[in-house]
Amino acid sequence: RADSAMYQAKKSGRNQYRLFTAEIQQAAARVLQLENALRKAWERDQMTLHYQPQVDLGTGQVIGAEALLRWRHPELGQVSPAEFIPVAEDTGLILDLGEWVLRTALQQVRRWQDQGLPPLTVSVNLSPVQFRQPLLPELVQRLIKEAGIAPQLLELELTEGAAMDDPEGAIAIMDRLHDQGIRLLIDDFGTGYSSLSHLKRFQVYKLKIDQSFVRDLSEAAQDQGIVKAIIGMAQALGLRTIAEGVETEGQIEFLRTLGCDEIQGYYYSRPLPAAEFEAYLTRQSTP
Ligand code: C2E
Ligand code: CA
Ligand code: CA
Ligand code: CA
Predict the structure, then answer these.
(1) Could you give the percent of the chain with pLDDT greater than 70?
(2) For ligand 4, a single-atom ion, which residues have Cβ within 5 Å?
């Protein structure tokens, strides 16, 4: 935010300078406020995870969930992860927070398993900062062991940027995670710069089609072309596909015709607290 304010300040005339200085100060103050609040929230266990169902388009069954962080601050209200994750990354808190997310999500999968629910995968978002930790594979292995679940039930969501920063390094880490049986997917696919030659060497199992291409799928011929191309490419590479941000029946029909494997979005459900997610599953399986 401070960055974009500064960019705008550069773009506009000198007479605008004071105005943008105030904006920059405001943005910087907000970041500082979030930094302090975030650390306290972390120490006081005020973060929770919500789970959004992922549905197999072929069978209509819920086969997994994406774990998404939620933070409600007593005064600031609900703060979006899109705003606080970057702050956590800048301060390094993302390492502790990310480990907590992984542990909590894996323990949740274990509880679902113990409840006798059909096997569910959990997808966890991995920050590039976490991905660059040399001991990440060991950490993940330890947490999976602690939870006592099959490694195949964990999917790690990685953005193209995280992998393309240092493709050779990324390939090595992906290989190690893959050797442990963990599944990797590329998140927000289509918005970054991964080249086909890298994609071929990345040990990924699935591509998540970014919601920006899904949004206007029913109206925009261009987005239809992009989604069609992504699914075609994934199929050629032997990868599964999941579309995120699916809100309408029309979008589902398109994705079905194009051969998309899985769907995630408000059409099925918003991200839910664990107990509500379980209630949702029960409703789905009782006709
Ligand atoms: P993302 O990984 O792309 O997650 C998808 C976002 O789209 C989520 O926003 C989700 O609530 C929202 N969404 C799901 N279905 C729909 C839909 O049908 N329509 C629309 N308009 N939106 C939908 P959320 O939960 O606010 O998360 C924002 C971003 O914050 C995530 O984007 C992810 O990059 C990051 N994030 C969330 N939790 C974590 C985490 O535990 N670790 C890390 N590193 N990042 C996280
Ligand atoms: Ca994601
Ligand atoms: Ca996205
Ligand atoms: Ca993302």
Answers:
(1) 93
(2) 187-188
Cβ proximity of 51 and 277 under 8 Å: yes
ipTM over 0.90: yes
Residue 235 Cα to ligand 1 middle (Å):
25
3-state helix/strand/coil string of 20-57: HHHHHHHHHHHHHHHHHHHHHHHHCCCEEEEEEEEEEC
> What does pTM read for this prediction?
0.91
The pLDDT tens digits for 113-153 are: 999 998 899 999 999 999 999 999 999 999 999 999 999 99
C-alpha 188 – ligand 3 centre gap (Å):
5
Q: Which atom of ligand 1 is nearest to the CA of 68?
A: 38
Question: What is the rounded distance in angstroms from the CA atom of residue 151 to the CA atom of residue 7?
Answer: 44
Q: Is the pLDDT of residue 194 over 80?
A: no
Determine contact, residues 211/238, Cβ cutoff 8 Å. Answer: no
**Probe residue for ligand 1, chosen from 68, 123, 210 as the CB with the greatest number of ligand atoms within 8 Å:** 68
Task: Tell me the three state secondary structure of residue 91.
Answer: helix
| Helices 167-179 and 136-147, axial angle in degrees (round to 10) | 20
